[in-house]
Amino acid sequence: MSDGNAHAQGWRPATFYPDPAIQALDPRFEKYWLKLSAVERLATGLRWAEGPVWFGDGRYLLCSDIPNQRILKWEEETGAVSVFRKPSNFANGNTRDRQGRLVTCEHGGRRVTRTEYDGSITVLIDSFDGKRLNSPNDVVVKSDGSIWFTDPTFGLLGNYEGYKA
User: Fold this and answer.
1) Structural domain of residue 83, as residue ranges?
2) How buried is residue 126: exposed, middle or buried, by Cβ count under 10 Å (0-12/13-18/19+)?
3) Nearest alpha carbon to residue 100 among 57, 143, 64, 62
4) Residue 54 contacts by C-beta under 8 Å, 6 or more apart in sequence?
5) pLDDT at position 21, please?
6) How much is the pLDDT for 12?
7) Residues in the chain with pLDDT < 70?
């Protein structure tokens, strides 16, 4: 999806392949590059997007717009972009668990949560060894179902992507 300012902002859709906007900065990645792929703008107005997670069964993509306190949803069939969750508690990294549920790192809540099928949110972890987490950032679910995440201090440094602590 593109807005009318695409050209003014310097981005434009590829007119030939391989897309000149895609570059392999390390030759080891060349083997993973699909030469018929192209960069496509799905939305604008995000301060910065992180944590993309694909729901192939629903044909939609979720991503976090951390400073704007929201998770956005892009629908493949219609190209529609909507707010999936706001406020998002400064959601950052997202993934799916082995049952297909959304798992989210939240800077604001200093926690990792799971969105249940009914939309309710379950806190998976918010402390370790009696101490609050910092600001969970990136998350992955291993094939055995265990959840691995990073916990840097980024979200504690100010009120832009979390709460100063």
Assistant:
1) 45-156
2) middle
3) 57
4) 60, 61
5) 80
6) 77
7) 1-11
